[in-house]
Specification:
By secondary structure, the protein is of the alpha+beta class. The chain is built from three helices and five strands; from the N terminus they run E-H-E-E-H-E-E-H. Strands 1-2-3-5-4 form a five-stranded antiparallel beta sheet. The radius of gyration is 12 Å and the shape is globular.
Amino acid sequence: MLCMIVEPPVGHRTAEELAQALGCRVAGSGSAFGWAQPALLGSTAGFSSLLRAAGGRYDRADRATVFPSWAAMERALRAALASRP
């Protein structure tokens, strides 16, 4: 499967800000033949279990955690920020 990382669509500033607070960045991950899904790039080792619980799955090809929707990604990022000491 051909995958690629693209810039996130306009209007997802909240997800971008939350990701930056965790030292990550957001993008779109998708195949050449489908819609791009929200993806989180960067080191997620400290909160990867929270991301999986919120519906995120790690995509080896893109080396990113991919979510089914932007809302799911935002919920996961908020939970990760709330769990920080």
